[in-house]
Structures are given as C-alpha cells and as structure tokens.
Amino acid sequence: FLPEPIEQEDCYRAMKAALRTAFKHDKYISELYCPGMGTGVGMVPPKEAAQAMAKAWIETSQEADSPRFH
C-alpha cells in the first residue's frame, strides 16, 4: 500500500466526520483545529481542499442547530 492522490470529496468527508464528532461531544471538545485535509500526501490542491472543508463546515453547523442532530 502506497499513499496515493485522493479526491476533493474525501477532504469534505474527513472534515464532516471531524465536525460531527466535535459537535456530538461538545461537552468535552471546545475547539477543533484542522490542517488542510488532503493537501499533503493526498495531493489535493489547497484551494480545492479549503472549498470542500468550508462546505462541510456550513452543512454540519446547520445540522448541529437542528433537533435531529442531538
């Protein structure tokens, strides 16, 4: 198994998973710092990774405000 390029969608999924976990456990997690997910070994261009991560933030923060999230 060798590292290989990933897709922009993988950055979105990784960010969404991290955010959902943080929101779910907000009693224990007050801050979440994220690097440019996928921009290293995954070779996703930083701008594309940032767009995917921002999309995940917008969607997940809206979900966190809804009753079904809790």
If you had to describe this structure to a student in words, what would you say it looks like?
With 70 residues, this protein is mostly helical. The chain has two helices and no strands. Helix 1 packs parallel to helix 2 (46-65).
Set down the secondary structure blueprint.
Blueprint (H helix, E strand, L loop, with lengths): L7 H17 L21 H20 L5
Helix pairs in contact: 1-2
Task: Please describe the structure with a list of short key phrases separated by commas or semicolons.
about 70 residues, mainly alpha, about 55% helix, about 0% strand, elongated
Distance separating the two termini:
38 Å
- The best one-word shape is elongated
Query: What's the alpha carbon Rg, rounded to whole Å?
Result: 13 Å
Low-confidence runs (pLDDT<50, min 5 residues)? none
Order of helices and strands: HH
Helix residue percentage: 40-55%
Q: How much is the average pLDDT?
A: 90
Structural class of the secondary structure composition? mainly alpha
Kindly state the number of beta strands: 0
Please give the count of helices.
Answer: 2
Largest sheet: none
Beta content: under 5%
Brief summary:
This protein has 2 helices and no strands. With 70 residues, the chain is mostly helical.
